[in-house]
């Protein structure tokens, strides 16, 4: 069995736990308000802006035997440069304050997920970062386009407010195939386990971001429906 398939099987429970979270389910059905969507975009900005630095850091830490993977990281970087700017544009299109987000602070949950990514690269096994790539791109592919369509319809927002979600829903299908090709070339068992361990951790850490947002905004869903 190819390692990518093994990776999906090994992390299936964690993936399902993430996709079952109340806020993700609500987003897929369009049952969120504008404030919650803007807050989601704000948290996304604060982790997406680290994507390129994390890819660079991971590539710099790879041993010579993984030169082929360093090349793959360079391709990812070309694709990911500037994506955080899309998020700021979406916030503006929603009527939110993009500059406040740019100069603001992430939630504790977002900060912790990003910090753990740097920790894996710097202090553990840099290949564990590929677990984060699986979680973020896999979740985007599964939910982004559906959530964008549902939320736009419910909130009557312009298409310009969904460039981050819609672009990831389309782009990450190809990214997933590229990712599978990379991880299938990892043959060392310790490195494979590092990817699996990282993915399990990031499913939980990413889920914590959505859980915090739900705790913050779920009461306002009920209030708006009652009104």
Written account of the structure:
- This protein is mainly α and 227 residues long.
- The protein is 80% helix and 0% strand.
- The protein has twelve helices and no strands.
- The model has no long low-confidence stretch (mean pLDDT 89).
The number of helical elements comes to 12
Q: Share of helix among residues?
A: over 70%
- SSE succession: HHHHHHHHHHHH
Major sheet attributes: none
Outline of the structure:
Helices cover 80% and strands 0% of the residues.
Features:
12 helices; mainly alpha; single chain; 227 residues
SSE diagram, text form:
Layout: H1 3-10, H2 12-19, H3 22-28, H4 34-48, H5 51-61, H6 67-80, H7 83-93, H8 98-102, H9 108-123, H10 129-155, H11 163-183, H12 189-226
Helix pairs in contact: 2-12, 4-7, 4-9, 4-12, 5-6, 5-9, 9-12, 10-11, 10-12
